[in-house]
Amino acid sequence: MLVDTGIALGLPRGTYRRLAARGGMASRHGITVGGVVIDVEYTSEIKVILQNHGNTSYKFKAGDRIAQLIVEKIQTHDAMEIDNLEDTNRGTQGFGSSDIGPKRLIMCEELKVKMGFLNPDPQDNSYFDEEYIHTQARLRDEITMLSSAMIAAIQMQTMDDSFLDRIRAAGKEDKTWTARKGELTQLKERRETLPKHWELEDRLLYYKGGLFITPKEELLTEIAKGCHDFRVAGHLGQDKTFELGTRNCHWEKLREWINDYVRSCDKCQHNVSPRHAKYGLLQPLEVPFGAWTTI
Predict the structure, then answer these.
(1) What is the phi/psi pair of residue 152, to 5°?
(2) Which of 133-137, 139-143, 156-160 holds the top average pLDDT?
(3) Is residue 151 over pLDDT 70?
(4) Are 11 and 40 in contact (CB under 8 A)?
(5) Could you give the maximum distance between any two Cα atoms of the chain, in Å?
(6) Residue 157: which pLDDT band, with cuts at 50, 70 and 90?
(7) pLDDT score at 144
(8) Extents of the domains making up the chain
(9) What is the spatial distance between Cα 83 and Cα 71, in angstroms, rounded to a whole number?
(10) Which of 31, 107, 224, 258 is deepest in the core (most CB within 10 A)?
(11) What is the mean pLDDT of residues 129-151?
(12) Which residues contact 230 (CB under 8 A, 6 or more apart)?
């Protein structure tokens, strides 16, 4: 697309003009600038060639900044013909010959921005591309987004090496964990089939795909905070907190422990409305039939 700018520019000898794309337009919308070099002899109106490499159309308005104009100095000396050139390390080697460092493969994948409404059951999740933001009724009526301040406040729970070392150390103090680990180690050494749902990897136990943790209160509380207390978790109920906890971890009596943790949450007790039946009317105490027999 050729865009008229209404601008003509004259420059002194020994310079030229170069048009460059704007970083925001290129990164967010895939719009770049072509035909970038303009020599000093050209004094007519400057026109910009815009190329849209994105998947959606983009509309410009009068006054929008669409490109950058850069003025650079150049050498205009006459070229001299010679018979031979100086010898260099690269010589006649072609493309890629100067890249002598270690190679690594870089995989590039185009990602589209999506908005989603998440549900306890992942099969009920709804996702929308950015092109549907202004057309989907649900997106217009139910715009509930996380602010940048909330995202910055998220404490991401990652199982780094130090946390895994604490799990190993706690397991060595638990007889059940140690016995199960010894059993799985012997089976792997004899190349026999492991019990159903159990795995042994990097001196850690896994049950149903989740890291099996010995019931040490310090470790369990730290995991539960990531599934219930953090702002993104939103102080979910017992079922949803249990579902989040079982995605990556498992321990004995997990359901009972999670239910007790959620019931004892101070913020939930103060902010969540009670769902039990209404209490009945106050009833008088039984009238005692004798002095000092009932207090």
Answers:
(1) -65, -25
(2) 133-137
(3) no
(4) yes
(5) 130
(6) very low
(7) 47
(8) 2-73, 114-145, 161-271
(9) 35
(10) 258
(11) 55
(12) 154, 155, 157
Residues making up the chain, counted from first to last = 295
* HEC sequence for the chain: CEEEEEEECCCCCCEEEEEECCHHHHHHHCEEEECCEECCCCCCEEEEEEEECCCCCCCCCCCCCCCEEEEEECCCCCCCCCCCCCCCCCCCCCCCCCCCCCCCCCCCCCCCCEEEECCCCHHHCEEEEHHHCCCCHHHHHCCCCCCHHHHHCCCCCCCCHHHHHHHHHHHHCCHHHHHHHHHHHHHHHCCCCCCCCEEEECCEEEECCEEECCCCHHHHHHHHHHHHHCCCCCCCCHHHHHHHHCCCEECCCHHHHHHHHHHCCHHHHHHCCCCCCCCCCCCCCCCCCCCCCCC
- Segment among 18-22, 44-48, 154-158 with least mean pLDDT: 154-158
Token pair listed for 7: 């601008």
The domain at 161-271 falls in which architecture?
A: Orthogonal Bundle (1.10)
Angle at 62 between CA 58 and CA 64, to 5 degrees: 65
User: Does pLDDT of 70 surpass 70?
Assistant: yes
At 169, which amino acid appears?
A
Q: Give the per-residue pLDDT at 93.
A: 72
How far is Cα 183 from Cα 189, in angstroms, rounded to an integer? 10
Question: Check: CATH 3.40.50.300 for 2-73?
Answer: no
- Beta-strand pair 210-212/249-250: parallel
The residues with which 115 forms a beta bridge, in sequence order, are: 128
CA atoms within 13 A on the CB side of 204: 20
Once rounded to an integer, what is the mean pLDDT over residues 226-252? 77
Task: Using CB atoms within 10 Å of the CB of residue 261, give its burial: 0 to 12 exposed, 13 to 18 middle, 19+ buried.
Answer: buried
Average pLDDT, the chain: 77
Mean pLDDT value of segment 2-31: 82
